């Protein structure tokens, strides 16, 4: 009896010890998993926020770069940029053109504002009081154009922002640095309006480092912080740069309010902080966990310990815990490995594509805005070429970068005079790389269709046709562009950028050759390339693998 009691007591002690060990391990695992998941979610969120901020700063740089020695007293300076700034889809509240005016230019500026139909054409200060040019001895930063135009936004046009408490110092810093600068958080549009930031990008005079004005974009803070995810593991706040003892908090609707940082020892501290760069300034995001990992882990540990003690069996407790731990650990490892591989692949692919697109845009801007080019012509060509790139990127995004239908490229609204192009050929799917080159090629060809003088007094008629000869690896792609009623004497020569694109860039991107010549009645451009380069199955397979859904591992039986 004593011996049996000893054995039972020994088994009970061993069972309790094993149950306690199991509870401790579960506690550590749950705590570690929660912390890892929270840290990974914070890193991903911070990366997305930085990407959004970079996009918006890039919009400011591109917009300011499109100006070349502008007439700063015009009241419709944003007109050429409207299609471009909306193509970026950066959800700005308002965009504006702020000219740096000398007092002697007030009269001309007021006439420009009156002619543009703004309700108040007088030059006023930030408090809407009229200014007397005779009493001023320094230039002022005057709001001359705004987008979108409404009854509320148009009322701000004509005001001087030099002495505005928030924006005045930002203009001064942008003028000194020559780069986009972000303002402190401020109420947009009117007192009590949404809290946001204003990005100020200086517009430099051509051949000089002196700013003649500024392009500004205003953004609400809530969308910039990505603070509307109800299922997130954390809530995010922005440390107020105006006061170290306050934070900017966005609720579930995106409305931002200011709250004081508590130091009472009861209010939880931020789980992590991340610093983002925007507008030449550092912004600190603080993350507060929505779940208390310290409370959840002990609850899970107590549950496992209770189950182990209830079983009071060393075999059941041991194998139950081992089976549970191994299954959970294996599933966690498999999901984590799959997620990290896919995340790495997506980031690498995104970096590759963004670098390619930025390189193409840089080449377009450099070639289009070369020294000595006509500003108006270069601006229209630049907007058209960037619009063509934006259109093909939109088409590729809709197809998850699987490719674009060739007929769709020719019939797109980004191609000038597409309604006068007769299209003939099989509707093949071209690769992403080929689509970008072909889109620019079609734009360059189509933009010249109305420049030549017809031999019979009509615009040239255009026929675009293609065919595929052969099958398999020997298939050859032939493309022919023919403009009728055009001759070498009447058709204007292609630009430097167009010549390089037609003769070298597009053929090399397709892995083929090109030629252009005049017949008795037409202008002809032809491209011949291997079909396997035009389609590029290797790129399509890689994109399909990245975009494929991530399957959860099967449960072990």
UniProtKB/TrEMBL annotation:
Entry's EC annotation: 2.7.13.3
Gene Ontology cellular component list: membrane
Keyword Protease carried by entry: no
Keyword entries, A-Z: ATP-binding, Kinase, Membrane, Nucleotide-binding, Phosphoprotein, Transferase, Transmembrane, Transmembrane helix
Entry's Gene Ontology BP terms: signal transduction
Domain of life: Bacteria
Coiled coil keyword on record: no
Catalytic reaction annotation: ATP + protein L-histidine = ADP + protein N-phospho-L-histidine
Pfam families in UniProt: CHASE, HWE_HK
Membrane-traversing stretches: 300-324
Enzyme class: transferase
Compartment(s): Membrane
UniProt domain CHASE: residue ranges: 142-221
Molecular functions (GO terms): ATP binding; protein histidine kinase activity
Primary location: membrane
The protein, known as: histidine kinase
């Amino acid at each position: 009896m004593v011996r049996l009691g000893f054995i039972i007591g020994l088994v009970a002690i061993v069972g309790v010890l094993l149950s306690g060990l199991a509870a401790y391990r579960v506690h550590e695992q749950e705590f570690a998993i929660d912390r890892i998941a929270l840290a990974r979610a914070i890193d991903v969120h911070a990366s997305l926020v930085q990407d959004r901020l970079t996009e918006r700063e890039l919009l400011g740089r591109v917009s300011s770069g499109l100006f070349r020695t502008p007439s700063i007293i015009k009241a419709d300076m944003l007109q050429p940029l409207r299609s471009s700034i909306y193509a970026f889809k950066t959800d700005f509240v308002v965009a504006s053109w702020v000219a740096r005016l000398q007092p002697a230019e007030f009269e001309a500026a007021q006439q420009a504002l009156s002619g543009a139909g703004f309700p108040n054409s007088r030059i006023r200060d930030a408090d809407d009081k009229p200014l007397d040019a005779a009493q001023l001895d320094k230039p002022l930063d005057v709001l001359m154009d705004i987008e979108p135009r409404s009854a509320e936004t148009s009322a701000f046009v004509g005001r001087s922002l030099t002495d505005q408490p928030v924006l005045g110092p930002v203009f001064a810093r942008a003028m000194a640095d020559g780069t986009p600068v972000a303002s402190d958080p401020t109420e947009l549009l009117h007192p009590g309006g949404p809290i946001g930031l204003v990005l100020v990008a200086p517009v430099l005079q051509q051949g000089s480092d002196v700013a003649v004005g500024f392009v500004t974009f205003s953004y609400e803070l809530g969308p910039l912080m990505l603070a509307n995810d109800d299922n997130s593991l954390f809530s995010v706040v922005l440390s107020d740069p105006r006061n170290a003892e306050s934070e900017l908090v966005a609720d579930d609707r995106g409305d931002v309010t200011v709250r004081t940082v508590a130091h009472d020892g009861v209010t939880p501290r931020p789980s992590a902080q991340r610093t983002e760069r925007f507008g030449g300034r550092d912004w600190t995001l603080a993350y507060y966990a929505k779940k208390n990992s310290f409370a959840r882990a002990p609850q899970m540990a107590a549950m496992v310990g209770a189950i182990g003690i209830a079983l009071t069996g060393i075999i059941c407790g041991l194998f139950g815990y081992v089976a549970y731990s191994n299954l959970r650990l294996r599933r966690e490892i498999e999901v984590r490995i799959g997620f990290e591989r896919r995340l790495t692949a997506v980031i690498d692919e995104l970096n590759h594509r963004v670098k390619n697109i930025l390189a193409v845009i840089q080449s377009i801007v450099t070639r289009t805005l070369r020294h000595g080019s006509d500003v108006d012509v270069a601006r229209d060509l630049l907007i058209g070429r960037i619009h063509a790139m934006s259109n093909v990127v939109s088409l590729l995004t809709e197809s998850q970068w699987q490719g674009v239908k060739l007929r769709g490229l020719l019939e797109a609204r980004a191609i000038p005079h597409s309604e006068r192009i007769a299209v003939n050929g099989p509707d093949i799917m071209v690769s992403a790389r080929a689509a970008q080159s072909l889109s620019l090629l079609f734009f360059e060809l189509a933009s010249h269709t109305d420049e030549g003088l017809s031999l019979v007094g009509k615009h040239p008629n255009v026929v675009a046709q293609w065919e595929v000869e052969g099958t398999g690896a020997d298939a050859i792609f032939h493309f022919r562009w023919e403009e009728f009623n055009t001759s070498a004497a009447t058709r204007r020569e292609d630009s430097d950028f167009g010549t390089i694109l037609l003769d070298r860039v597009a053929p090399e991107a397709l892995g083929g050759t090109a030629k252009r010549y005049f017949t008795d009645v037409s202008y002809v451009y032809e491209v011949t390339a291997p079909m396997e380069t035009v389609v590029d199955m290797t790129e399509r397979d890689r994109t399909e693998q990245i975009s494929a859904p991530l399957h959860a591992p099967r449960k072990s039986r």
